[in-house]
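call fold(seq) -> tokens
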Amino acid sequence: MFLMLTLGYKASAEQFGPRELLDFAILAEELGFDSVVVSDHFHPWRDTGGHAPFSFAWLGAVAARTKRIRIGTSVVTPSFRYHPAIVAQAMATVALLAPGRVFLGVGSGESMNETPLTVSAWPEPGERLRRLREAVRLIKRMWSEDYVTFEGKYFQTREAKLFDKPARPIPILIAAGGPQAAAFAGKEGDGIIVTSGKGAELYRDTLLPAMEKAAREAGKGPATIERLIEMKVSYDTDRSRAMEDTKEWAALALPAEDKVGVEDPREMERRAKAAADRAHTRFIVSTDAAEHLEKIAPYLEWGFTHLVFHFPGRDQERAMRLYAKEVLPRLRSRA
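ret:
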């Protein structure tokens, strides 16, 4: 089985409130996007103008107001402020509201979303990945079994049953920034999630080969594994506007060491101001559709099958309409 190209819209819950974001999701379906993918934050990247609606409740609204698009998270962490069984219950409910259209994207977490509620030290990456592995195992059992007793290192259940769950398990896509997580996605997941703008070597030489190797070792064909990438794009007829829009997401241009351990949106906003002039480096900034397509083309050549477009500016409707008119048709004809 080979996966068809899916072109999606990233609903940035850190930037917009729930009702406005719902309107964007409905518009995305009307404009021909194939999916709507939402982030799951407790704290946003900035205090001024920041938002953080509850992703599961919001997905329920999207499920009820749309008919065609796939919907899912990119990503939720099911291993700290949420118990995995609650994540399983939440997504099972959404899947019943939108049969065959739902996927769960999971990751090992960011301290800004977890430690304000867990009130504990943020663990090292190895433990975070171990917690994620255990959480995924439990979620799968909650969807496929009744009265689950689970005795893990981090999570436990006793005769726990989900009474409303879809007939088929929901696809699980796993976020990966390194080879271990990529291998986990290939072995245990139905797909992998990465973000754009980090250098060809990471995708071509590290993440995708690790995912494919693990999939083969697990007896799965690599071509059956969905490869989702969040494409950070700023496309506009006015280049100065396209550049200015990226400054909303200046925090993405900060080096990892400047973000780790920062839980307060006020402090993150302060640090991001220093990176405002570099914000555009995390985005594909273009004013010409042909040029834009050439910058996206390598991701298709590396084998990504689900491109989710993240538009950085405040005027999401303008960005979506322009992209749907000038870029999406070219991408589909090229694929």
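The radius of gyration is 19 Å.
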